[in-house]
Amino acid sequence: MTSAEKFLSMLIALVAFAAVIAVILFLARTFGERNGGRGTAWAFMAPVVLLLSVGLVFPALMTVYQSFLDARGDNFVGLANYATIFTSPDQLTVLRNTVLWVVLTPFVSTAIGLIYALLVNGARLEAPAKALIFLPMAISFVGAAIIWKFVYEFRPLQGNVQQIGLVNQIIVWLGGEPVQLLIESPLNTVLLIVILIWIQAGFAMTVLSAAIKAIPDEIIEAARLDGVGVVQMFRFVTLPTIRPAVVVVLTTIGIATLKIFDIVQVMTGGQFNTSVIANEFYSQTFRSDNQGLGAALAVLLFLLVIPIVAYNVRHLRSSEAR
Amino acid sequence: MSTTTPPVSAGTSPKAPAIPAGTLARKKLSKPWASLAAIVLAVLWTIPTFGLLVSSFRPERAIKTTGWWTFFSDPQVTLANYEKVLASEGANALFPYFVNSFIIVIPAVVIPMTLATLASYAIAWIDFKGRDVLFVAIFALQIVPIQVTLIPLLTLFVDLGIAGEFASMWLAHSTFALPLAIFLLHNFMREIPRELIEAARVDGAGHVKILFSVLLPLLAPALAAFGIFQFLWVWNDLLVGLVFGGSENRPITVALSNLAGTRGTAWHLLSAGAFVSIIVPLVVFLSLQRYFVKGLLAGGLKG
User: Fold this and answer.
1) What is the pLDDT of residues B4-48, one digit of tens each?
2) Cα B5 versus chain centre, distance
3) Which residue ranges run through the membrane (chain B) (predicted)?
4) Which residue among A51, A59, A166 sits closest to B178, beta carbon to beta carbon?
5) Domain extent listing, chain A
6) How many CA atoms lie within 13 A of A184 on its CB side?
7) Nearest-CA neighbor of A305 among B144, B150, B94?
8) Residues of B in contact with A44 (CB under 8 A)
9) Which of A29, A55, A201, B221 is the most buried (most CB within 10 A)?
10) What is the ipTM of this complex?
């Protein structure tokens, strides 16, 4: 297909979609007003209910079912796939890595974001200084991974081979030997985590900076008059006030981290003991043709998201009630 | 109540003279350190991207044998990498995938935005049976990770005969976006004063008319917030493109990911290609920045 043909097919699809919407609106206008608009309500809800039940609810239930089947989906194997996740050495490494990701990423990026927000708060070049940190948010994980490939690349020390990765060049400049950064485990996982921290710190910084600016001046002023120092000000005034925002940031990054896939896929493909649940799901399902195990990993991912969301919702409720 | 608190009605009062000398001194002392720390962080954060930008303009041989920092002692500039990457034909051409990304993203933003507007209107302003149950169900669906749906969805697309077609990605992206879109737009619709809707109804306006002439103009910021969020989400997506995209119509992210995985990495193509793929979301992001943060915050639970 040429580019023009692609655009044409897209236009046709959009026109078809517009036609569907026009029919819905026509039906709603002609028949919908009876019974206080119930007809309109169902005409408006129908496409959404259809898409969500066929495209989300039904597949999710199917996946739960498939997680109890064997690799090819032929025989019922009970909890065997889940047992594999929690016993096979490969899968245990996957779990270990996922824990490492989910523990390190939210806390480190939130801490860096918070520190940076405090440092530039009220500074002269605040807006551009913030933009520099925030820009990685707009870059795709794939783009970010490629950027960091240029940072982590390793070249063996021989003849006049030069390093092209920045980290190894710095090691060499300092008189050390270049390290196979993406091959040595668990160092490689930590270095991949750095990439996500690099991306998420900007998000944390933006949200927390807004929260810091929302603290009423009177509170700051009163604390200052009481002779509170910088550190105490942070501990007893700033942090308690922005606590709800910190929780939102931590949980949001936590959920995003749990589902991290792109960075691992592009940097190592999950090799060298760097795989995580979302990546292992992809490898097992589409590379190793082990659909049962893949499905079980997807279900596990879902189960792990729930407590984080529950904590977030409960915390939001309690801070609203206050 | 502290008696030392000055009346706040004075508005923007100048710095209170009562600040103890110790605090003042400490504040003054910490200032240069704060600036220095901020600069160090900002430089650290920018260097990786800067390195890629410099690399993308260096000749292939230079990229593969020396680091980008040698550019400053031995500057060699070329546009050859961009020419190769942006060529519409040839083994290394990334341009077709760049086009694919646009083809995928436009309907994947328009479709959920339209459907969610209709649904959120119904939930917010029409009293119908099962409304609350539906809303809670849709809200809960936000947290379902897309991984949970991929295998059965792929089977479904194969049965429908659209596996590997653009349509499969439009449908998948639209479906995944709906819960968040409805949640976001519903919250916004509820903030519109009830009197406005009731006045229009008294005037004899039907729901369709109210939606288009009363609500839609007010909804623009919410639609923008969702639109930009969904645009970045779809443009930057790898997983959906990898699973549902055919070899001809995969998005730029998938093409780049494949390129990065090949043996004897094509560094010169990667650097230029990555930059081309970054520019579009960057432009969208910079021009609509203020809506973006709002969308991001609301999308925290998206699966």
Assistant:
1) 333 333 333 334 444 444 444 444 445 788 889 999 999 999 999
2) 45
3) 33-54, 102-126, 133-158, 170-189, 210-235, 266-288
4) A51
5) 3-58, 91-278+298-321
6) 9
7) B144
8) 118-119, 121-122, 126
9) A201
10) 0.90
